[in-house]
Amino acid sequence: MARESAAESPPNIRLGLRENWAQFALLVLINAFVGGMVGIERTVVPLIGSEEFQIASTTLIVSFIASFGVVKAFANLVSGQMADLWGRKRVLVLGWLVGLPVPFMIIWAPSWGWVIVANALLGINQGLAWSMTVIMKVDLVGPKSRGLAVGLNEFAGYLAVGLTAFVTGYLASEYGLRPTPIYLGIGYACLGTLLSVLLVRDTRDHVRLEASSHMEQSPPVGFREVFALATFKDRNLFAASQAGLVNNLNDGMSWGIFPLFFASFGLGFERIGILKAVYPATWGILQIATGPLSDRWGRKGLIVAGMWVQAVGLFLTALTRGFEWWLLASLLIGLGTAMVYPSLIAAVSDAARPTWRARALSVYRFWRDLGYAIGALSAGLIADRFGLAWAIASVAALTFVSGTIVAFAMRERSPSEAR
Q1: Could you give the CA distance from residue 144 to residue 349 in angstroms, rounded to a whole number?
Q2: 245 vs 144, 370, 390, CA distance in Å?
């Protein structure tokens, strides 16, 4: 990759959102389909475990999230290296091909083991396909609009998560948990695969163009060094990685625990679907604003405040009873996550050079998405021993601590200082 960056890029290659709007918009649409694949599971799959398979253990029910999180984390880890070696488009298409069987496996699953395996495949799909849509958008726009690029990408993905969670909750209330709500996933998978194969163009030439604009030529950086930098050696990358892990830790907890928590108070499928939709939809929509704001105001303040707002929303969920309070809490969690999510990815992009940015983002996303597994399993264990409310409150406290670590560890960097 280092040798490639020194090569001249084709003369028609330019950086910027306006210059690449058609490909950028296509990638936004494709990431909506990627997000929709997760959305089909947000409301109905935990309830399939408890209602259809009669699983009493919370830890066993959330095991499907653990399989998803671990596999997605490792798919993220290798996705940047694969993208640099094979090209972004090939990795995107591979991610979709792996995801095609997932909705069929959930529809036909005769046992919970099938659901766990399906979520392992979904983890590969998300780790490769979502990673590529982020990386390709950052490649296209250049250093001045990273927050906007990430905000639009995550807006599309998580709005699709929220809308699909709502629709599947409604369909489940009308037609049952399977198969009707899962039909959406078949459509998402087929459309995402076709668009990726037929219309997406690779963006490695944009990386070469950006790298050639740097006055100094950086020496090649190996994957081990990038992993160390993104994990602990660079304080900004360390702060971002731990915050990303805790952010998805509380998301993994809410994915598995919230439907069971709400159902334990007699809430029906449709209202659970509304609560499960409000959080990611708020998160998705507000990133249109928070992504560009991080370009103007900087990353650190939004990350710290966002983690603390998430913590307030999680405490409110654990300590209150009733649909209206939980709706307010879901809005707060969505607001906090919208402040954090694009700012973290943009902060990692700022701290990494173009020649190893894809790998740095992959390491960050490895730690971030490992949080799904840690959050689901730890919350399940706490819930089985102490109750669902204790599981939610414990994650809320950890989220507050993570925001405090960012406040002390991260150095603010203006976008003009991005490498």
Answers
A1: 11
A2: 26, 6, 20
> pTM of this prediction?
0.82
DSSP assigned state of 219:
P
Tally the domains of the chain: 1
The pLDDT assigned to 10 comes to 59
H-type helices in 100-130, by residue range?
102-108, 112-125
In this predicted structure, the answer to whether residue 2 has a pLDDT above a threshold of 50 is no
Query: Residue 219: what pLDDT?
Result: 64
- Distances from the Cα of 196 to the Cα of 90, 150, 201, 345, angstroms: 9, 19, 9, 23
Q: How far apart are CA 219 and CA 195, in angstroms?
A: 37
pLDDT per residue as tens digits for the range 229-283:
999 999 999 999 999 999 999 999 998 899 999 999 999 988 998 998 898 889 8
Domain-embedded: residue 391: yes
Q: What is the mean pLDDT of the chain?
A: 89
Listed residue (63, 197, 182) closest to 129, CA to CA: 197
Buried/exposed code over 216-245 (b: 16+ C-beta within 10 A; e: otherwise): eeeeebebeebbebbbeebebbbbbbbbbb
The answer to whether residue 141 scores a pLDDT higher than 50 is: yes
Give the distance, in angstroms, between the CA of residue 92 and the centroid of all CA atoms in the same chain.
15
Instruction: Quote the domain boundaries for residue 319.
Output: 16-209+220-417
* Cα–Cα dist 229/235, whole Å: 8
The upper half-sphere exposure of residue 6, i.e. CA atoms within 13 Å in the direction of its Cβ, equals 7
Phi (first) and psi of residue 176, to 5 degrees:
100, 170
One-letter amino acid at 405 equals: I
Residue 173 within any structural domain of the chain: yes
162/84 Cα distance (integer angstroms): 32
Q: Which two tokens stand for residue 75?
A: 């798919």
Question: CA of 109: how far to CAs of 41, 117, 223, in Å?
Answer: 14, 10, 39
Question: What's the rounded mean pLDDT across residues 35-55?
Answer: 89
CATH number, domain at 349?
1.20.1250.20
